[in-house]
Inverse folding.
């Protein structure tokens, strides 16, 4: 019996081995290595010349005006994009959960942008928002002089926000739809018998039941917005301009690691970003737990 138990364990670990090896080689190994070199002056062009600098990279980060601007841009981007896209996604999900004509078409239409390449979306928006693009042409019909959106310090980041909301709202809509379809119809029927209006049913039934789904979408959206890179890279051609108006933390990490070849400094910035996302996630988890308890 004991031998059979040992053989079952060996068989189990054998089946798990490909996963364990892949995680160790492609995730845990690089993660540990990146953490170590974040305390070094390290470049892949000359790794032998790496020197230990302790917390110097981390201290320098918060003295670096470009990193501070990237952190501010990313925080502003996340604080606007996350609530707006979740609100729109929830409204669309509630509408498309009703028995309306053509709802399958609309579900597909809203979801298609999410499976489109972010680079392709960015290129499309570059044409839409250029000086003589479609957006400015429409504004001109109403006598409004449109800006050069992506070349403007004031409008470059908001333009990327609009792009991100349009291209990702479908993902969260689908998750909300799945949550809505799990709500028992009896709850709505009982509320309707009691004379509850549609708005009351939404706030007293739909939102409370959807709380775990809202939390899930909120965390996924928060992580995604703090990791924004593709759109900012394409729009600014990897420069984060104009005047660092579209510089994000991940774009900053990319530039430091693969353009300046200062991989130790880039690794330190990556771990600062990780800590920020972790803290925000834990705070939101605590808030949601307190509200549901």
């Amino acid at each position: 019996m004991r031998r059979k138990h040992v053989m079952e364990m060996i068989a189990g670990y054998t089946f798990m081995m490909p996963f364990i090896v892949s995680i160790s080689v492609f995730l845990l190994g690089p993660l540990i290595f990146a953490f170590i070199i974040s305390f070094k002056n390290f470049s892949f062009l000359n790794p032998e010349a790496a020197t230990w600098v302790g917390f110097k990279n981390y201290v320098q980060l918060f003295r670096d005006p470009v990193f501070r601007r990237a952190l501010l841009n990313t925080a502003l981007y996340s604080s606007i994009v996350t609530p707006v896209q979740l609100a729109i996604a929830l409204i669309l999900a509630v509408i498309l959960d009703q028995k309306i004509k053509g709802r399958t078409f609309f579900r597909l239409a809203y979801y298609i942008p999410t499976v489109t390449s972010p680079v392709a979306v960015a290129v499309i928006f570059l044409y839409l928002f250029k000086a003589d693009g479609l957006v400015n042409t429409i504004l001109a019909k109403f006598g409004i002089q449109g800006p050069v959106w992506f070349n403007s310090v004031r409008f470059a980041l908001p333009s990327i926000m609009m792009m991100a909301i349009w291209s990702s709202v479908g993902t969260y809509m689908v998750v909300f739809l799945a949550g809505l379809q799990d709500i028992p119809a009896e709850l709505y029927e009982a509320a309707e018998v009691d004379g509850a209006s549609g708005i009351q049913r939404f706030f007293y039934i739909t939102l409370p039941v959807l709380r775990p789904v809202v939390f899930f979408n909120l965390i996924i959206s928060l992580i995604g917005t703090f990791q924004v890179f593709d759109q900012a890279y394409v729009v600014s051609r990897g420069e984060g301009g104009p005047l660092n108006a579209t510089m994000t933390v991940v774009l900053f990490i990319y530039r430091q690691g693969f353009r300046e070849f200062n991989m130790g400094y880039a690794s330190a910035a990556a771990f600062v970003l990780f800590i920020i996302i972790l803290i925000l996630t834990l705070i939101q988890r605590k808030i949601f737990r307190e509200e549901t308890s």
Summary: The chain has one domain: 56-292.
